[in-house]
Amino acid sequence: MKQTGTYTARSFDLHGLRGISDRTLDTHFKLYEGYVKETNRLMQLLRDFLKDGKVDQEEMPAYSELKRRMGFESNGMVLHEYYFDNLMRGGSDRSPDHSPFREAAEDSFGSFELWKADFVGVGKMRGVGWAVCYLHPTMGQLANHWITLHEVGNVTGFVPLLVMDAWEHAFILDYKPSERGEYIDAFFSNVNWGTVNQRLISSPAHHAAQHT
Ligand SMILES: [Fe+2]
Description:
CATH architecture of the largest domain: 3-Layer(bab) Sandwich
Largest sheet: 3 strands, antiparallel
Low-confidence stretches: none
Number of strands: 3
Order of helices and strands: HHHHEEEHHH
Strand order of the largest sheet: 2-1-3
Number of helices: 7
Mean pLDDT: 94
Structural class: mainly alpha
CATH topology of the largest domain: minor pseudopilin epsh fold
Number of domains: 2
CATH class of the largest domain: Alpha Beta
Radius of gyration: 19 Å
Distance between the termini: 49 Å
Bound molecules: fe (ii) ion
């Protein structure tokens, strides 16, 4: 039988960011590759359970644990891809005036600054996880959410527009644990708003909101 679906780790050309060192990035890319590898490994182990066409009752505890880990590893993989993709050398800390993201932030929060204050607030939440600015799948509204670890707090159907890693490994080589605010400032100075705006305008929810 054909075995389908293994993921390939992507490479990202990000060296030379402001405030996020190449050493941090290299460590981070290795961690990301680990998520891809582990996702592939878990998928193979889970496929093995189905060799007899079903999941047997006595297999259920092991199967359940692997499935649970699958949520962690695969979200870890995908969130890192969003994160690296929304950074760039020569990025900037604000989406240009009249850009679709600026207008969506103004519609949803009153101003870009209020949207950003809310996003930064999410990014400073205690614990490890992710700050994500999402687009509601049908209403076109923006909402900032906190994802704990990689898998708790993802909102079904919401479209990630801007993703920020708030695990300490994202900044601990460059900043102290208490300096997450400095890391967030560095993150914002490198945002690729072209990517963020492209994610927004390519979403059907954005088009639906434009016509209501
Ligand atoms: Fe990370």
